[in-house]
C-alpha cells in the first residue's frame, strides 16, 4: 500500500483529448479537472504568440516563458531586444532562495546592453480598461478582486480602475534596485515558492514560465544572503535564450495553454474549488487565485522528436 | 549593479541579538523584521520539546521537524513509536511533485510496523477550546479566521468551535488512501510549494519542518504521475530518523523558534504586512497566514561544531 495525497495540477496534460462538450455549468460542476480537460474542445486552447515566447536553454533542458506585453509593454519589448542581441546567452542564475525566487542576470553588471535600455519606467499596474478581466468570485487576502487576463493571474481594483498581474508560482518579474524605475528586464526572477503577494505592484511582472519550471525550482539553493550563490561555480549557466519566432520550426515545442476566458475554464476552476473525487472529504468551497492550475499541453509531438523533448 | 527583489524571510537568523525592548505597538509598526528580531528578548523565543522533535538524516544533511501533538495526538504518538522502532530508517523519498509535496514511506507497503498502528482515526480538526489561538486580523480565502497556535499556522471557525492546522509551506502531513481513516503516519509528506489549502481538513497535519527544508524542496522532481519517481535509483534514502530526546547532547542542533503569541511576534507580522524599508513602494496592508515568516535561530554554536552543522 502506498497511501498518497491527491495530485495537484499537472502542468502537462495528454494531447488530443476527446471532444466531448461540457454542456452546462451545473453539469460541469460535478466533473473532476481531468474530466473537464478530457471534454475540452480545440477552441478552449490557445498557442502562445511566438513573438512573446522565450526559449531558455539551461544544461538540464528547456524552459519556456510566455511574456505579458498587455501588462508590461515596455519591459517585454526591452527583454525581446536583450534576447535578440544575445544579452542573456551565457549569463548565470545568481540566486535561488528557498520558497521565494530564482534570479538570473549579469553579476558584475558590466555586460553591454546593446541597444536595450538599462532602466525603464515601472509597469507595476495599468488601466483596467482595455483588458478582458475574467474574475474569480472567491475572496483574496491582498486584492479587491482576482482573476485572469489572457492566461495570467491578475488582480483588479474597480474603484481605482487599475489592474495588475500577481506574484503566483512561476511568474516572471524584472528585478530592480531601490528606485521604482531602476529595473528594465536585464535582471529577471521567477517565483519558486509560496506566492509572495506583497511584491504585487512593487515590481514589474513581465510573464510566466509555462514549461520546464522544475528545471528552475529544483536548483540547489544559494546559501548567501537572500539566497545568492556564494561562489561562481555554484551557479547554473543559461546557455542561450531565444524568441520562439526566431527558432527554426523543427526546434519548436508546440505548447497549447488552456484559455482562461471560457466556460471550460470556469468548469476547471469549479472542479478545483470543490473536488469531486472520493478522496476529498470536505470540498474547500473557495479557491485562491494562485491555486488555480493553468494547464499546458504539447500540441504536436512528431515521433522522431520525442526523445529530444525536455521532460516536464 | 545587481538589481534584486527584496529578501523573503530567512529561516535562520543570527544568534544572540541585543536585548532592546520593543516598547509599543506604535513603535513596533515602524520597524523592519530584522529590527524586530534584533530587539527581541530571550523570552520571545522557545525551544521545541525534544520529545516532539524529529531529526531526519538525509545524504545532504539534517532535516528537523517539530511535531504538533496539540492537533494530532494520535498521529504524533504513532510517529514517535515508528521512529523509536526504526521504521523510517532506510526508507526512500518516493515522490517530489513540483510546487506541491515531497513524500516518503515504504513503496512496497511490506515493512513491518512493529507496535505502531497502520491506520488511525483522522485528526483533521479539533475543538478550539483548550488552544491558545493567536488570530490574524487579515482576511483569508479559505477559512473564517487564521492565525497561529504554538508556532503552527492554523485556522478556526468560532461558529463550529473547531480549529485546524493549515497547509503552509513546510507543513508535515500524514498521507492516506481514499478512506479518511486510512492513514496513520507511516507515510508522510511535506508541503514544498504554494500552500495547497484545499487539503486543509482533508488530511491530518502532524508537524512542520523547522530546519533543513531546502534539503527536501530542492530534490529533483519525480516525473511519474503525481511526481512519483519512476525508478528506485532516483529516490533519496532517509538514512535515519531519531527523536531529539533520544539523541546525544553533543549531536543536538539547539534551535529556537520565535514564539507566536507575543507582542514581538505581532510586531514582526506588522513589519511584514507593511514593509517599511525604502525598497517597497506600496505596502501590502494585509498578510496571508502562509506568508508570515516563522523565524528559527541556532541558540548555541560551539566553535568546534560549526563545520559539522548542516547548512541552512
In a nutshell, what does this entry contain?
The structure is a homodimer of 312-residue chains. Chain A is an alpha+beta fold and 312 residues long. Helix content of chain A is 12%, strand content 24%.
**CATH architecture annotation of the largest domain in chain A:** Beta Barrel
Compute the number of structural domains of chain A: 2
Biggest interface, residues from each chain: A-B, 81 and 81 residues
Say which CATH homologous superfamily of the largest domain in chain A is assigned: Cyclophilin-like
By oligomeric state, this entry counts as homodimer
Q: How much of the sequence of chain A is in beta strands?
A: 15-25%
Q: Let me know the number of strands of chain A.
A: 18
For the termini of chain A, the CA-CA separation is: 27 Å
Q: Give the low-confidence spans of chain A.
A: 1-28, 303-312
Can you write the helix and strand succession of chain A as a string?
EHHEEEHEEEEEEEEEEHEEEHE
Q: Report the sheet with the most strands of chain A, covering strand number, pairing sense and barrel closure.
A: 9 strands, antiparallel
Radius of gyration of chain A: 20 Å
How much helical structure, as a percent, in the residues of chain A? 10-25%
In the CATH scheme, what's the topology name of the largest domain in chain A?
Cyclophilin
Q: Roughly what is the average pLDDT of chain A, rounded to an integer?
A: 89
Adjacency order of strands in the biggest sheet of chain A = 15-5-6-13-12-14-4-3-16
User: Helix/strand/pairing class of chain A, anyone?
Assistant: alpha+beta
Amino acid at each position: 500500500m502506498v497511501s498518497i495525497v491527491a495530485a495537484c495540477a499537472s502542468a502537462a496534460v495528454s494531447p488530443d483529448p476527446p471532444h466531448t462538450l461540457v454542456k452546462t455549468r451545473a453539469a460541469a460542476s460535478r466533473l473532476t479537472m481531468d474530466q473537464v480537460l478530457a471534454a475540452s474542445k480545440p477552441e478552449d486552447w490557445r498557442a502562445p504568440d511566438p513573438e512573446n515566447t522565450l526559449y531558455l536553454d539551461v544544461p538540464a533542458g528547456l524552459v519556456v516563458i510566455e511574456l505579458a506585453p498587455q501588462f508590461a509593454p515596455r519591459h517585454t519589448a526591452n527583454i525581446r531586444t536583450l534576447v535578440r542581441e544575445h544579452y542573456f546567452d551565457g549569463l548565470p542564475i545568481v540566486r535561488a532562495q528557498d520558497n521565494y525566487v530564482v534570479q538570473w542576470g549579469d553579476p558584475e553588471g558590466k555586460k553591454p546592453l546593446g541597444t536595450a535600455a538599462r532602466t525603464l519606467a515601472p509597469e507595476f499596474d495599468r488601466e483596467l480598461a482595455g483588458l478582458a478581466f475574467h474574475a474569480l468570485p472567491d475572496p483574496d487576502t491582498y486584492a479587491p478582486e482576482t482573476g485572469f487576463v489572457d492566461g495570467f493571474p491578475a488582480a483588479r481594483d474597480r474603484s481605482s480602475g487599475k489592474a495588475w498581474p500577481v506574484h503566483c508560482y512561476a511568474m516572471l518579474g524584472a528585478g530592480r534596485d531601490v528606485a521604482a524605475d531602476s529595473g528594465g528586464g536585464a535582471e529577471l526572477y521567477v517565483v519558486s515558492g509560496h506566492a509572495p503577494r506583497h511584491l504585487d505592484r512593487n515590481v514589474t511582472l513581465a510573464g510566466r514560465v509555462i514549461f520546464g519550471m522544475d528545471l528552475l525550482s529544483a536548483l540547489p539553493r544559494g546559501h548567501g544572503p537572500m539566497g545568492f550563490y556564494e561562489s561562481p561555480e555554484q551557479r547554473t549557466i543559461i546557455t542561450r535564450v531565444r524568441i520562439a519566432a526566431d527558432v527554426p520550426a523543427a526546434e519548436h515545442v508546440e505548447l497549447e495553454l488552456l484559455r482562461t476566458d471560457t466556460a471550460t475554464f470556469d468548469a476547471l476552476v469549479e472542479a478545483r474549488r470543490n473536488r469531486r473525487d472520493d478522496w476529498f472529504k470536505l470540498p474547500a468551497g473557495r479557491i485562491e487565485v494562485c491555486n488555480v492550475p493553468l494547464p499546458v499541453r504539447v500540441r504536436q509531438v512528431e515521433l522522431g522528436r520525442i526523445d529530444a523533448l525536455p521532460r516536464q
